[in-house]
Amino acid sequence: DGSSLVYILDSELEEELFLLASKCSVVLCCRVAPLQKAGIVALIKNRTDDMTLAIGDGANDVSMIQMADVGVGISGQEGRQAVMASDFSMGQFRFLVTLLLVHGHWNYQRMGYMLLYNYYRNAVFVLVLFWYTLFTGFTMTTAISDWSSVMYSVIYSAVPTIVVAILDKDLSRRTLLKYPRLYQSGQQEEGYNPRLFWLTMADTLWQSAAAFFIPLFVYWKSDIDGSGIGDLWTLAVVLLVNLHLAMDVVRWTWIVHAAVWGSIVATFIVVIIIDCIPILPGFWAI
């Protein structure tokens, strides 16, 4: 209780309390002051790498909510101080199950995949430039126009990334609530870890090489110029990364379809427009 914590917190007894609490399934603290609540959270937070979550509904829970990695406030009869200090707010305590098991799982899977995919789509584009540099003997020329380099992260591949990161769901709400153990995928780092990162980087090597050398050898004996082959490399990379994303999408909606296929169409249109402007390098390359 609070009286005991007065002598335990901020003393050499903290470590003993932590070791004892670590062996228990549940630890209950009663009649605890606001700063003592925050001290309990700090006790766990400072001694482990685990994420801490604090949930409260009143002003006396604000310190605890702010100390935790994730703070959840319940809007109730005790005012909105806890809600204002929290990361998430809800109307009832029972919604915590949905927040963790459903939205927590969805967001972890989305964030894990999007981190890997963003590494992938940017690495493929950069490696195409790298292969060009090696192939031309480190000349000062560029394979892709400056405009296409800018548009790649703005128009060509940005919208599908954002849409899928918001809307994609690997499992249904009913399945996640029925099988709570699926939440462990985040705790066990199944969606993002060093192994997946290096596998993704290895994937970018051969895919970027294919995107560079296939158009090059197909048009090897033609009279296509540097700007023309640069446009082909741009289109190849955009097709590659968007098709890669499309193969990984689990939940297709009309918005996802519009974002993925619309970005490919938009790339062709923008490349043609850029090549039709006389003042830009690569004029009439298409």
TrEMBL record:
Taxonomic superkingdom: Eukaryota
Membrane topology: Multi-pass membrane protein
UniProt record, GO biological process: phospholipid translocation
Keyword Calcium included in the entry's annotation: no
Pfam families: Hydrolase_3, PhoLip_ATPase_C
Annotated InterPro entries: ATPase_P-typ_TM_dom_sf, HAD-like_sf, HAD_sf, P_typ_ATPase, P_typ_ATPase_c
Coiled coil ranges: none
Keyword Metal-binding tagged: yes
Segments traversing the membrane: 119-144, 150-167, 196-220, 232-252, 259-284
UniProt keyword annotations, A-Z: Magnesium, Membrane, Metal-binding, Transmembrane, Transmembrane helix
Subcellular location: Membrane
NCBIfam families named among the record's database cross-references: ATPase_P-type
Protein's recorded name: P-type ATPase C-terminal domain-containing protein
